[in-house]
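Problem 12. The chain below contains 298 residues. Write out its predicted structure in token notation.
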Amino acid sequence: MDLKAPLPDLGRVGVFSWETVTRPAAEVRAGLRRIEELGYGAVWFPESRGREAFTAASLALEATEDIVVATGIASIWARDPMATAFGAYGLAEAHQGRFVLGLGVSHAPSVQRRGGDYTSPLLRMEAYLDSVETVSNPLKDGPTPPVILAALGPKMLALAAERTAGAHPYFAPVAHTAAARQIIGDAFLAPEQAVVLETDPEVARRIAREHTTGYLGLDNYRNNLLRLGWTEDQLADGGSDEAVDAIVAWGDAARIANRVEEHFAAGADHVALLVLSEGDGFPLDDLEALAEQLAISN
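Solution.
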């Protein structure tokens, strides 16, 4: 597999959707069709609970016509390299090259639940890419799916730029986007940005802390923020107001759009919006308001 295969056009703004892996299939189909109608260029989704990555990707691709579907990410601990390569080839061929294979090393607790050993994740990723790279496409004239890496630290970012098409940082502030761009050079950079469409600071930060509390307990995310100059005290108990505000953009649509533009000014090629709300389903009203503010169109 050509790990640096050209990426399809993901547009400037996409959606990071937990709903794609946790909601009933009929709701996922309807939600993703509406996201596509709103003009978002890509839909991203995780692999830590709910549907496994390739099942979710197949569902998303079958439900839509043009939007790019990207794993954000498929865990390298979930399947062997050959299974990953063959699955990616199949999705890319069946859906006009709309599939992007995002790979990541996940986190120690998730890997331990799978019975794996999280020792030396960078070396594990290097070896995994070595194996994926040796797998040829068995589908005649089928497209090669592009690969990107979930990357936060300097070494993983450098590996993403050296071996793949780019990087997809998650749970990182604008300052990280700027630092990542310096490391990866011209490679593709697509940070995730969590947002809360709420102008009341107390309500917005309460919703935001429901998101930040769990992630700040994971070493990879906390260490990334420590490298950027945050202190342990600022990251305790779900994060200080300053830390929460750096990770989660909140306010009206115009204020959130400003945060997106800050990522672009810092070097992002694409920003994936993770809309946080108190609802259970796809946050389509919020995504519609943001699409209008960001002047997204098909």
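Discussion. The chain has one domain: 13-194+253-293. Students who got a different answer should revisit the alignment rule from Section 12.3.
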